[in-house]
Amino acid sequence: MPSTQEIQEIQALTLSDVAPLSVTSGESRPWGSFTILEEGRGYKIKRIEVKSGHRLSLQMHHHRSEHWIVVSGTAKVVCGEEELILHSNQSTYVPQCTAHRLENPGVIPLVLIEVQNGEYLGEDDIIRFQDDYARTAAK
C-alpha cells in the first residue's frame, strides 16, 4: 500500500508532467508536432503541440470531423465563419467539410488532444486553402 507521501506526490503530478503512455508514432511539422496516441476503426486520438506564434494551415477534411481539447496554452481557433479563443480544459468541435485553423497566439507551447472520427482518417485527407509554410498538398 502506498504511503500518504507517495499518494500526495502522485496527486501533485500534472498532465504535462506525464509522458503519453500508448504512443504509436510522432511526426514533426513546421508549426510543431503531433503524436498518435491511439487509433482504431473510425477514430484516431492525437496529442498536438503548436509552437508559440505558429499556426496550422487553413484546411478542411472530406472524411472526418474533429474534437479539440486544450490541455495547456492558448488556442485561437477558426471554424467556418467563427473565431474563438480557448484555454486549458476548454474544447470545440470541427465538423466534416468545414474550413478550420488552429493557432498558438500565446508565449508557451499550445498542447491539445484531438479526437478524429470518420470513415477515413489518413493524413492525405487535407485540403489546404492557406498555408504559412507554402505546402499545397497533404503532408
Helix and strand layout, with pairings?
Blueprint (H helix, E strand, L loop, with lengths): L3 H9 L12 E5 L2 E9 L2 E8 L7 E3 L3 E9 L2 E5 L2 E5 L4 E4 L5 E4 L6 E9 L8 E4 L9
Antiparallel strand pairs: 1-2, 2-3, 3-10, 4-11, 5-8, 5-10, 6-7, 6-9
Write a concise synopsis of the structure shown.
This protein is mainly beta.
Task: Give a written overview of the molecule.
With 139 residues, this protein is mainly β. It has 1 helix and 11 strands. It has a 6-stranded antiparallel sheet, with no helix packed on it. Strands 7-6-9 form a 3-stranded antiparallel sheet, with no helix packed on it. A two-stranded antiparallel sheet has the order 4-11.
Which short descriptors sum up this protein?
mainly beta, 1 helix, three-stranded antiparallel β-sheet, single chain, 139 residues, six-stranded antiparallel β-sheet
Provide the β-strand percentage band.
Answer: over 45%
Helix residue percentage: under 10%
Q: Which strands sit side by side, in order, in the main sheet?
A: 1-2-3-10-5-8
Structural class: mainly beta
Q: Which regions have little confidence, pLDDT < 50, spanning 5+ residues? A: 14-21
Work out the oligomeric state of the chains in this entry. single chain
Shape: globular
What characterizes the major β-sheet? 6 strands, antiparallel
End-to-end distance, in Å? 49 Å
How many strands appear in the DSSP assignment?
11
Whole-number average pLDDT?
88
Order of helices and strands: HEEEEEEEEEEE
Counted by DSSP, the helix tally is: 1
Radius of gyration: 16 Å
